[in-house]
Amino acid sequence: MFSRTLFNTSRIARVARTPPRPIAFTRTHAVPSFSRSYATPSPSPSSSTDPNLTKAQELIESGTRALEDQDLSAAREFYQQSVDVRETPEGWYNLANCEYHLQNKEGAIAAWEKSIALQPFPDAHTNLASAYIFDKPPKPALAIKHLTAALALAPEDPEIAFNLAAVLESAGKLDTALTLYQKAEAGGIDRAAQNVRNVSAKLLGEKAKQQGPQ
């Protein structure tokens, strides 16, 4: 069983036009909770000549201010207006986060997918993975797909490795899960050590069953 915690809407992150550096945050559970950040637009050379892009960025900033005022519904409206004016990865990403917390899971998933289509980055993939894990019924195959994509974009992120390992373990893919738990432990995730021991024991048990009585 997986647990979920909410992200902190008061913390703002910046998303650049190129794939950004992964946003690090502490996750206490096996599968990532939703990203503890929203994205604000980075200055773009084209914005000075594209009035629609300038307007879209201004609307994102208005959404960010609404979040700082704890007004999630107003933030959602600003982000929707932003992508209506000009689609941007940060506009869709922030809209997705709002939609999910306003209980519109289908809208959130669609918006994260649109964000990724414009600019893949790890947080959008991990958020999608979380949404699929906490779906009813859970969709572990889709969670694995998106966590794998997140790890490809941020291969040195031990938290993503840990979370992917947890889903793989639950799906019975123990060899790959063990490798990723070991990667997470080497990256400083102390709790991964227990998972390494547990999965190693499971693999030994499976091997013993295959060999049969001696």
Short key terms for the protein model shown above:
about 210 residues, mainly alpha, Serine Threonine Protein Phosphatase 5, Tetratricopeptide repeat, 2 domains, two-stranded parallel sheet, 9 helices, about 60% helix, about 5% strand, elongated, disordered N terminus
Note the topology.
Layout: E1 12-15, E2 38-41, H1 51-68, H2 72-85, H3 89-101, H4 105-118, H5 122-133, H6 140-153, H7 158-170, H8 174-186, H9 192-211
Parallel strand pairs: 1-2
Detailed description of the structure:
This protein folds into two domains: 51-119, Alpha Horseshoe (Serine Threonine Protein Phosphatase 5, Tetratricopeptide repeat), CATH 1.25.40.10; 122-207, Tetratricopeptide repeat domain (Serine Threonine Protein Phosphatase 5, Tetratricopeptide repeat, Alpha Horseshoe). It has nine helices and two strands; from the N terminus they run ββααααααααα. It has helices at residues 51-68, 72-85, 89-101, 105-118, 122-133, 140-153, 158-170, 174-186, 192-211; strands at 12-15, 38-41. Strands 1-2 form a two-stranded parallel ribbon. It is elongated.
Count of helical regions: 9
Major sheet characteristics: 2 strands, parallel
CATH architecture classification of the largest domain: Alpha Horseshoe
Number of DSSP E strands: 2
Strand order within the widest beta sheet: 1-2
Approximate helicity band? 55-70%
Class inferred from helices and paired strands: mainly alpha
CATH superfamily of the largest domain: Tetratricopeptide repeat domain
Helix/strand order, N-terminal first: EEHHHHHHHHH
Mean pLDDT: 82
Distance between the termini: 36 Å
Counting structural domains, the number is: 2
Q: In CATH's first tier, which class of the largest domain applies? A: Mainly Alpha
Radius of gyration: 19 Å
- Low-pLDDT parts are 1-36
